[in-house]
Amino acid sequence: MVQTLTPQEMKALLADGEVDVVDIRDTQEWADGHIPGARVVPLDDLRADPAKTLPRANIVFVCGQGLRSLTAAKLADRLGIGKVYSLDGGISNWTRAGLELVHG
User: Fold this and answer.
1) Distances from the Cα of 89 to the Cαs of 49, 56, 62, 64, in angstroms?
2) What pLDDT, on a 0 to 100 scale, did the predictor assign at position 55?
3) What CATH number does the domain containing 6 carry?
4) Is 75 in the active site?
5) Which of 5, 59, 63, 91 is labelled catalytic?
């Protein structure tokens, strides 16, 4: 089952170090600003070979607005990958909450 997270809930999970943050936007979007510790796996790459790009359970998917990340999370859930999360509202909601992005 996919669980959506608020930015504050995601921040708490990140502090515990128990999640893999997968940003499924394209590489240019990711370079423009991403959550610290996130890795980029564009949605098309994820769809092409999910087993290769999703090596562990406890994954939070992130995108710009929360729609693509929910699609990715549902795919991971169908594959039986442990706990799967999606950041509600994406990077937009993260920054509205005053949380940090890394650029470059």
Assistant:
1) 26, 24, 9, 7
2) 67
3) 3.40.250.10
4) no
5) 63
Total structural domains within the chain = 1
Q: What is the pTM of this model?
A: 0.94
- Average pLDDT across each block of 10 residues of the chain; the chain has 104 residues. List them in order: 96 91 95 95 92 82 96 92 94 97 92
Domain membership of residue 14 (yes or no) is yes
Q: Could you list the residue range(s) of the whole structural domain that residue 85 is in?
A: 2-96
Angle at 94 between CA 88 and CA 97, to 5 degrees: 110
Q: Which helix (H) or strand (E) is 75 found in, with range?
A: helix 67-78
The pLDDT score that the predictor gives to residue 23 is 97
d(CA 99, CA 11): 9
The answer to whether the CB of 78 falls within 8 A of the CB of 84 is: no
The reply to whether 102 falls in a domain is no
Q: Is residue 71 part of a domain?
A: yes
